[in-house]
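lol ok so funny story. i was supposed to be doing the assay writeup but got distracted and ended up predicting the structure for this chain instead. priorities right. anyway since i did it might as well share w the group, maybe its usefull for someone
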Amino acid sequence: MNIETRKLNIINWISSLQEEDILAKMEEIQKEKVDWWNVVSSDDREAINEGLEQLDKGEFITRSQARNKIKEKYNF
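and the output, tada:
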């Protein structure tokens, strides 16, 4: 079963739930989830934002181009 099917099954199950204790547990789980953006350092956030800006400007190389540069640099 793929992830999309699993999520739909859970959504359907949740929509029919009547048990308050199960809903409360699910809310606890939701609150526990930490947003990864708040965990990374400010330097990492800055680097990510810089990379996104470069992508928006079209300043990037493809995976195969990067692989070729590495091969040339390290004589692979």
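The chain has a mean pLDDT of 93. The chain has one domain: 3-74.
back to the writeup now i swear
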